[in-house]
Amino acid sequence: MRTYDDTFSGQKIYPGKGKLFIRGDSKIFRFQRGKSESLFLQRKNPRRISWTVLFRRQHKKGISEEVAKKRTRRVVKHQRAVVGASLDVIKERRNMRPEARLAARQAAIKEGKDKKTDAERKKADKAKNAAAASRGQGSRIQSKQGAKGSAPKVAAKTR
């Protein structure tokens, strides 16, 4: 069964009851009783008339039994893992003593420096080997095609 709401009072209108009012701009208004229609045509504000649904909603009437108390949301803090470290590792590092943390940091710095010196040493060795190889070759520049073993380019005999 289709029911409509009264445009003015907000109460339900059951089939076969009420009046339909269509304004000049084709807007439809439905009224349950002549009382609400009359007040609408007098341009009364339904929020100021105590028996309308809008007034009751605005002044919080008749909703005390439905909603006992508004529940407040509490902020819950969560800890999440970061891309580089899991949650266990993060907790372990947080609970570490300052001396142990300092020692671990010093060890990490030393390890980083050792890696850097190793990389520089390798680079120097590579450069030395490349220089020795070029000396053995007679400092002759060779193209890629020549290195692959293709036939040497023939020099032009005419001008």
UniProtKB/TrEMBL annotation:
Domain Large ribosomal subunit protein eL24-related N-terminal stretches: 1-66
Superkingdom of origin: Eukaryota
Region (Disordered): 107-159
Pfam family name, one: Ribosomal_L24e
UniProt-recorded Gene Ontology molecular function terms: mRNA binding; structural constituent of ribosome
Keywords assigned by UniProt, alphabetized: Ribonucleoprotein, Ribosomal protein
Record field: compositional bias (Polar residues): 136-145
Cellular-component GO terms for this entry: cytosolic large ribosomal subunit
The keyword Ribonucleoprotein is annotated on this UniProt entry: yes
A GO biological process held by the record: cytoplasmic translation
Signal sequence, start to end: none
InterPro entries: L24e/L24_sf, Ribosomal_eL24, Ribosomal_eL24-rel_N, Ribosomal_eL24_CS
Biased composition, class Basic and acidic residues, residue ranges: 107-128
Entry's family note: Belongs to the eukaryotic ribosomal protein eL24 family.
The name this protein goes by in its record: 60S ribosomal protein L24
Species of provenance: Polytolypa hystricis (strain UAMH7299)
